[in-house]
Amino acid sequence: GRPARGVENAFMRRADETKIAAYPYAYDLGRALNAAAKAKGDNGYAPHWAGQAAPLGRALPAAELVAVLERETREAIAGLSRL
Asked: Strand, coil or helix: what is 42?
């Protein structure tokens, strides 16, 4: 298959697509790496898989993000009513 999309963290930064084992081995190895890191208090190796819209995410405080999304939704609905 194709490489998966993931949210950038230590796990993803260390990934070298030319050296990744085939599934399911890659899954098992990633799981073992995450467990070992977690046992040492490091949560940076948990895989956080994302869909194709992940790059559209916004780094904002939650309240600000909700306000922006509300405004954009209202603008989009108003735009539809003009059609």
From this structure: coil
